[in-house]
Amino acid sequence: MTLELVTAGESHGPALVAIVTGLPAGLRLDRDTIDADLRRRREGYGRSPRQRLEQDEVEVLAGLRHGSTLGSPLALVIRNVDHESWAWGMSPWPPSGEPEGKGTSPVTLPRPGHADLAGALKYGHDDVRNALERASARQTAAHVAAGAVAKALLAEIGISVQGLVLEIGGTTAEDGWKEATDAARSDRDTLGGVVEVVAGGVPPGLGSYAEKGDRLDARLAAGLMGIQAVKGVEIGDGFALARSRGSEAHDEIGQGLRRETNRAGGIEGGVTNGEPVVARAAMKPLPTLMQPLRSVDLASGEPAPALVERSDVQAVEALAVVAEAAVAWELARAAREKFGGDALVDFVGAHRAYLERIAWAP
Ligand code: EPS
Asked: What is the whole-number distance in angstroms between the Cα of residue 139 and the centre of ligand 1?
């Protein structure tokens, strides 16, 4: 029994879609809770004006009845309000009438750092828009909706997940983030940052050392690295551990099998050890610059400045929410594998029985 997720949707297309399979029946979902996470993802200083336009309200097309999951695939939809301005340019079918609105002429100026060039070459697109629309971080809204469902499942077994910002543009003090963002905006530049996700109430034994693909740290790294603009991931003290001695790097085991330190970030051998799971992700500065970098016009082969289009100055606060969803998703998948069950009561009951067997209490 495992959870699976497939998403679809272009940034300025009609909608984003997420289909989740492998949920137990009888899990109660709350629309406001999912929408609240979608709202958190849109907020944050330095986001594109697009975020004030989008409503990001989840619609459920299947898998839910009167607020409870049915055990069948759950189909979620988030409409793109902005699609109205792109109706001709992003029409799924050949558009009729004269071109109007946005996206009507081909993009041929790939942005360094975006998927533009690699995507256009790989898929044979003459219009870079055919690559950038799907590569866009707009798509993270679908993952946040799925993450909210994962968090609802985890809450049933006492696991909570929280993402937070550690740094924006190299500034660690929260009172400097707005200033750093304003300075980058006025320089027509962009910023990156670092976020951290902490999951509490996680029992020992999620994930496995049996194969590298079973290791929870490997899955968390893949889930976090799979987020747009993420270039680095660490679990626990990560890279700092490489610079310390063994006597200072590990977490000694005490009474009740608890640790006084958590340098391992709650994972040893790819398996949770009962301490909070801690993961960090580093985001590069966003590649759409209002003062564009050098590029090449793919139509002429001549040097030309890269594409300039409406974008964010930084989206680190959004990353904290998206990373939270990614960690929740991977933990929920690992919990489904460990505790199984077609009905929620089976899942919760297996978790309870497991805690009775092991010498560990939340
Ligand atoms: C993005 C560029 C901007 C961001 C977008 C991600 O899009 P637009 O050009 O439409 O303003 O706003 O993020 C979202 C739309 C979102 O919902 O997060 C990019 O190039 O990745």
From this structure: 9
Q: Which of 250, 298, 344, 240 is nearest to 107 (CA)?
A: 298
Which residues lie across from 230 on neighbouring strands? 283
* DSSP type of residue 244: S
Binding site membership of 286 for ligand 1 (Cβ less than 6 Å): no
Nearest Cα neighbor of 327 from 227, 237, 231 is 227
Instruction: Report the pLDDT value the prediction gives residue 243, as an integer from 0 to 100.
Output: 97
Measuring CA to CA, which residue among 55, 60, 57 is closest to residue 19? 60
- What secondary structure letter does DSSP report for 14? S
Q: How far apart are CA 144 and CA 40, in angstroms?
A: 10
What is the token pair recorded at 13?
A: 């297309």
The predicted model scores a pTM of 0.97
Measured distance CA(101)–CA(86) in Å, rounded: 6
Tell me if 69 sits within 8 A of 29, measured CB to CB: yes
CA separation for the pair 207, 216 (Å, rounded): 5
**Is 1's pLDDT higher than 80?**
no
* Cβ of residue 141 lying under 6 Å from some atom of ligand 1: yes
Which residue's CA is the nearest one to ligand 1's atom 20? 136
| CA geometry: angle 48, 34, 201, nearest 5 deg | 110
Q: State if residue 43 touches ligand 1 by the CB under 6 angstroms criterion.
A: no
Does the CB atom of residue 275 touch ligand 1 within 6 A?
no
